[in-house]
Amino acid sequence: MPKRTDIKSILILGAGPIIIGQACEFDYSGAQACKALREEGFRVILVNSNPATIMTDPSMADATYIEPVEWKTVARIIEEERPDALLPTMGGQTALNCALDLAKHGILDKFSVEMIGANADAIDKAEDRERFDKAMKAIGLSTPNSGIAHSMEEASQVADQFGFPCIIRPSFTMGGSGGGIAYNREEFETICRRGLDLSPTNELLIDESLIGWKEFEMEVVRDKKDNCIIVCAIENLDPMGIHTGDSITVAPAQTLTDKEYQIMRNASIKVLREIGVETGGSNVQFAVSPKDGRLIVIEMNPRVSRSSALASKATGFPIARVAAKLAVGYTLDELQNEITGGATPASFEPSIDYVVTKIPRFAFEKFNQADQSLTTQMKSVGEVMAIGRTFQESMQKALRGLEVGVSGFDPKIDTGDEDFAATLYNQLAEAGPDRIWYLADAFRQGMSCEEIFNITKIDPWFLVQIEDLIVEENRLQGSNLTSVDEKTLYRLKRKGFADRRLADILSCTESEVRNLRYGFGMHPVYKRVDTCAAEFSTETAYMYSTYEEECEAEPSNKDKILVLGGGPNRIGQGIEFDYCCVHAALAMREDGYETIMVNCNPETVSTDYDTSDRLFFEPVTLEDVLEIVRLENPKGVIVQFGGQTPLKLARALEAEGVPIIGTTPDAIDRAEDRERFQHMIEKLDLLQPLNATARSADEAVELAKKIGYPLVVRPSYVLGGRAMEIVYKEDELRHYMKTAVQVSDDSPVLLDFFLPNAIEMDVDAVSDGDKVVIGAIMQHIEQAGIHSGDSACSLPPYSLSESVQDEMREICKKMARELGVRGLMNVQLALQDDKIYVIEVNPRASRTIPFVSKCIGVSLAKIAARCMVGQTLEDQGFTKEIIPPYFSVKEAVFPFNKFPGIDPILGPEMKSTGEVMGVGTTFAEAYGKAELGASDEIPSKGSAFVSVRERDKEQIPALAKSLVALGFKLVATKGTAATIEAAGFDVQPVNKVKEGRPHIVDMIKSDKINLIVNTTEGRQAISDSSTIRSSAEQHRVYYTTTMAGGSAVCEALKFAGDIKVRSLQQLHREIT
Amino acid sequence: MNSQTYREAVLALADGTIFRGTAIGADGLSVGEVVFNTALTGYQEILTDPSYARQIVTLTYPHIGNVGVNTEDEESDAIWAAGLVIRDLPLLASNFRSQQSLDEYLKTKGILGIADIDTRKLTRILRQTGAQSGCIMAGDIDVHKASQAAREFSGLKGMDLAKEVTTGVTYPWQEHSWTLASGHQAHKSGEGKYKVVAYDYGVKRNILRMLVDRDCELVVVPAQTSAEEVLAMQPDGVFLSNGPGDPEPCDYAIKAIQEILETQIPVFGICLGHQLLALASGAKTMKMKFGHHGANHPVEDIENNVVMITSQNHGFAVDEGSLPENLIATHRSLFDGSLQGIHRTDKAAFSFQGHPEASPGPHDAASLFDHFIDLMEVNRQGLAE
């Protein structure tokens, strides 16, 4: 049965901004779906509010709408585009929920749009806990004993049945948002209350605890003829109780006999049939009792997922691509397995001859107050995947690929600490982000496998392997490099030990270990990922390293460009950099180079095996990169697109003779080294805020007197705004020096005068080493002091004069020429009192590159890559800045709802996980749309609480006027209330928390406040008011912590009723 | 493995390739045809499958032995494979059903194995050159001797192994398929609805179990049992089992099948049984390059136009071009288009090349057993009329 001819156009829904639980895996799947359907001749219409994605590149779809994935907006797009079909299974929970809303509101019926892939009933059956439970019982499968509750009373009745611990999960939330494990009644009530609040259907599923059971996932694909295949079985190393997104997982499943595996396989297929997923990929999760093998179905996702992206990368079987083709009528046997060059059909089950390990990456360092324990609600922000021939090898490769300052099982515990034994026990018993390293420490402390199993319930099969690695480490400890013979080193390398880890154990340098290894002629070989365990030959160059006999890499003699990727997603380095890497690879391939990608993030488009000619799925570390360079001998290596990960390798790579192209590592250093940067600023006669470097607390205080307050303070040794604060007074500075950083000669603290009333700008530019072209000037909407990644910005600027902008252009061009930039450059500028200050220069790809490229209709990353290989901007016909005749606003999206209780205030440290874009003919419209895309829900009426710091009070009248005009009643703390009254508006005064009850937090908790504008500064004031923000977050009250945010909401509400949608393709035609 | 005494092993191929690794299992020397299997699970079922007689099995998944071994998962009472080649023997077997480690199991049964070699390299060699003769040597190593032994093994072409692995005596079979809750349960004797005689050319237990599940009263007979003896038992159906080696030399079996086909008794063949049914019907068989060995093979059910993922283990195949008019192709491999199933148009006889009994592997093709039951039922009603 070939493809359907009764449908011509298909609407694909994307997943919106990157949030915890929905990361760039949906860009990977969505991009694959777009490609797959367009090559079949369908007209593809795409909706996704996230401009950082590859899928929203205008060349990926026939009509691309960077608009909120929300039913009212999508309804407008449907009205405009009249698609025949809607594919809702590529954009995660966001797309499914939106599709269900469209069906519920009759939009699909009204415009005769058919849902393909999964229909509304199947989605509902899989998602609605009660229906799912019934369905599973009907096919003879067990589900956890569970109860449904729609109120606290019902919840309490269910709890009485099972006792504690029990697991609480709200219906229809993503990444397990709002769920948790309750060990006692108090925890139970807290979690239930939060869950009822978060569930769009006010529904909770309360499960008996299966903590300690083994956890498995099956990735199933089904076609309309009911052919079913299992693409991959994944075993969670962390047993039940930890969200699979936060678990270390291993593929294939390791601890099942064939008999047990086949039970699970049959059950998975039955589940798909019963739920009614007609075509496409689904994920089914199981718990298995380690005692008797009893099998319980936990849940199923009737769509592609994080796990299916992982399964695709783990096996080489592109689930999303195949699912898209199945949705339009093909059957599995009609599709080819691309990796074997079509020698075999897609209707088979991949067999793998290696082990894949995935480890999540967390960002708790950004959220100090957050509860770090891992539970059923996902908290990680990214993941790393590694491939090795054995579990030990893949595990150790994954650990070093994580980039969390370890190169393997580095010790965590300080045995000098007298409480270390208790710490160790707690860390094992209550899993946090670092448990895997504590496991290793437990073995170092002589704990037995059995003891550790009793505490963690991690299958002994995994534990003994970690134990063995520690045995190897212990054996090596105390000896020196010269005593390591070839046989020993080979054994260690085969077990996945990094040179760096061996160096740490042997107290020598990494290069000494490398030299020893080179002396033995010992290098990794590269094996191919081929879906079939070598049964068929493959031309596809999807490779991983291992220490074995035969190398299958077969490098060519062509001119090659190697692109280093960005590793696992983290806050500050995410999909934007992957976008740049992918564009670099595409451009180089278009120009006839053989392209090579190195990366270890399974969620990304860069690690799709057909993005580049050759893919090395490897950790982006010095050792791993050097080996690939040695093998491939590329003409050039691009380090400036993958964020800090490759950039920090630049100098070491250069020292080893690796041909780094584009801006030189020295120029990068000139921009990053504080003193060298200052010299450049002075040389070019530019301005930067007064600043100094302090090596002790007293010195800092002295220097601060000279510079003046407020000050931005940060340690010199970390990037991305880590531990960055604004201090307003000496005691705050002293407090910071004492608590936030450990200052010393080697790690000084940097002090910069903070420009409190400045407007900040981001400028992206591209240079060929001679000519510089401005990509865009973006004006931040939040005032200075908020990290640029967390600030909304407008392109073009909405309130800057032409002359100021011209001056900025000149400043950027001067610096680009001075640094000899060849490629991209990002500059952060501040404007205060008509003076332009240079805050920061980064001669590399920035977070804003994809946003700018979508706005101006030109891929800056591609242009920059071509500059790096020697083409001029003139050659490329890019000689003039493009200023679009419409406004585009980028707004940040935050993960605060995953970390209950933390203060969601914005500051100089970046906290956002993703971004959305809004486009409009006016700045206000664009701003409003961005705001709509970024938030779940903006209240349109009710009470607005306003409490602002002193220097924002002059903006109060305008804000009050807007809010009142929209129909809000105003509530304010005394100071702010006085200002509002003085401006002539009615206001209800309310107590601050410290002024006695009832106070504002009581009002929030009793749902009497609908919208909050709360600005504050200074340590004490921030801490006094933090309960306002955290309770607002908990009670899902819309809030903003900036004045700009306040006016944004008002703008958004003005446009809420009148949505205009325009495709990117239409917009780009307006550019002349 | 570090604390144990390390023993070296070599695997020598007839083409001169030598792999050096770690000995697992017994010491000594063993020769056979070296094949690879890509199944991710079920090593114990594979080792005890009589179809692997005289074959050295390479398992492509690197960790083999993860779940140990147990008595429930045996497909016969012995390890038939001539040797085992793996990348890694894990430090520990972990499964609630495990009774013994794989290493001990091999030793107890006197089977040689080699670990820690680049099994992917070996697989690629076998894929390119075809299945080769090989030799595993463990304990006292003499590479030259191993190579020579490998070269001297003449291969499976023309080799009748069914005769060697078959049962010596006729016996009844009453055990059911395994379930998680109750393991293997026994059928009460004398209560089966269909009397089936199963020819044992190297039968896997799971075939017998699946017939018992379907209410068959089973009698297993040696490979060389004559048709006359079988027909004297007045069976409702005759089953032709899987087995090792080349089907062509099994003239006694071909003759017996031809005689049985002269009656109206339904016949069902699997694997070697399939090839023998084809030969008995006038078709031809041939040796494949490296055969099919795995648990992920897509097979097209031609009539229903659906795909089944099947377990496969064969080095010989029926040549579709040689099918006489009264044999139709019912199944084809979607990997290489080779013939996977046939049905007689004039008789209630059919057969399948893959393994519908799975064990190891997916259960997708289990309905073939139901077809056999249907044929017996129809035949019985026909006789009653």
From TrEMBL, chain A:
User: Where is Mg(2+) 1 bound in this sequence?
Assistant: 285, 299
- Please tell me where Mg(2+) 3 binds in this chain: 828, 840
Chain segments carrying region Oligomerization domain: 404-553
SMART domains, from UniProt? CPSase_L_D3, MGS
Where do the segments described as Allosteric domain lie?
A: 936-1072
Record key words, sorted: Amino-acid biosynthesis, Arginine biosynthesis, ATP-binding, Ligase, Magnesium, Manganese, Metal-binding, Nucleotide-binding, Pyrimidine biosynthesis, Repeat
Query: Where do the MGS-like domain residues begin and end?
Result: 936-1072
Assembly behavior = Composed of two chains; the small (or glutamine) chain promotes the hydrolysis of glutamine to ammonia, which is used by the large (or ammonia) chain to synthesize carbamoyl phosphate. Tetramer of heterodimers (alpha,beta)4.
Fetch the HAMAP family from UniProt: CPSase_L_chain_A, CPSase_L_chain_B
Annotated protein name in UniProt: Carbamoyl phosphate synthase large chain
Automatic annotation (TrEMBL), chain B:
> What's the domain of life for this entry?
Bacteria
Q: Which residues form the Carbamoyl-phosphate synthase small subunit N-terminal domain?
A: 7-137
Catalytic residues at: 271 (nucleophile), 355, 357
The EC number(s) attached to this protein equal: 6.3.5.5
Span list, region CPSase: 1-194
A Pfam family found in this protein is: CPSase_sm_chain
State the family it belongs to.
Belongs to the CarA family.
Q: What does this protein do?
A: Small subunit of the glutamine-dependent carbamoyl phosphate synthetase (CPSase). CPSase catalyzes the formation of carbamoyl phosphate from the ammonia moiety of glutamine, carbonate, and phosphate donated by ATP, constituting the first step of 2 biosynthetic pathways, one leading to arginine and/or urea and the other to pyrimidine nucleotides. The small subunit (glutamine amidotransferase) binds and cleaves glutamine to supply the large subunit with the substrate ammonia.
What is the protein name stated in its UniProt record?
A: Carbamoyl phosphate synthase small chain
Q: Which organism is it from?
A: SAR92 clade bacterium
Tell me the classification of the organism that encodes this protein: Bacteria, Pseudomonadati, Pseudomonadota, Gammaproteobacteria, Cellvibrionales
UniProt lists the gene as carA
